[in-house]
Amino acid sequence: MKIEGTEIVDTYAEAFPIWLSRIIITADSLELAMVAATEATGFATSTIMCPCEAGIERYYSPAETPDGRPGVSIFICTARKSMKENVSARISQCVLTAATASAFDGFPDAKTRYHIKMHYFGDSYESRCIVGGRKCWKIPIMEGDYIGEESFGAVKGIAGGNFLIMGEDRQSALKAAQAAVEAIKNREGIITGFPGGIVASGSKVASKNYRFPMSASTNHRFCPTLKDKIEDSLVPDGVNSIYEIVINGTDEEVIAGAMRDGILAAVKEEGILYIDAGNYDGKLGTNNFYLHEILKDSV
Question: What is the CATH number of domain 17-155?
Fold first, then answer.
């Protein structure tokens, strides 16, 4: 299959189940909400070494938020048992401390729920209040009052939908990767949690050559500088730079849609020779996204 002259490899992306919480962060301006959201999603690219995966989902207009202020939603992605700890830490350390910010539950209808206890920060000076029909806490702080929810929902989701952009040089591959991220940002149901939405150093499960245990190591078969040094290279001729786009989301449909639109944006850029995907022979996950199936109506 070719689109815009770019070869779409007949392969699939391998993803895995994960739990998601959506936090709606509001503030007096969208800029201030983004500051808090950016802090709250830091050090959360991959569960390989980070305590969770996280990213910015989309912007919210004042008409969409409980307190009538502009907002930004984020996803926290982790195991169900770890969700409360991760959300509590990120709200208390990154939202409570941010100017004018508040945090509200983005999955109010979720059956799986947990409660953080941030109101104790108020040292008994806190009080209950209602905001937009929601039960909240008002905590006195130096700025004035922090107001937010403490009950949050979690739903089952998917992590690790992905595609690889293979370019003739780094400049063309990077430009295509940026175009792909731009095409799918601010979209309901998905995040691209790596820096700028782009992965420069994709990994494989465990290690091939070291004897000591490693959870991940460089995906050597997709490293262009190794293609003439190793026998199992998967880097095609002419490719000198590869970037990966990794997508977490609420379900297969939204992830597949984001993969499709991201790929279609990437192949419009010059110098993109192949689109591939990362899979690990079933060692990582159970959700498979087949590139030709996703793109069959786009040819």
Answer: 3.30.70.520
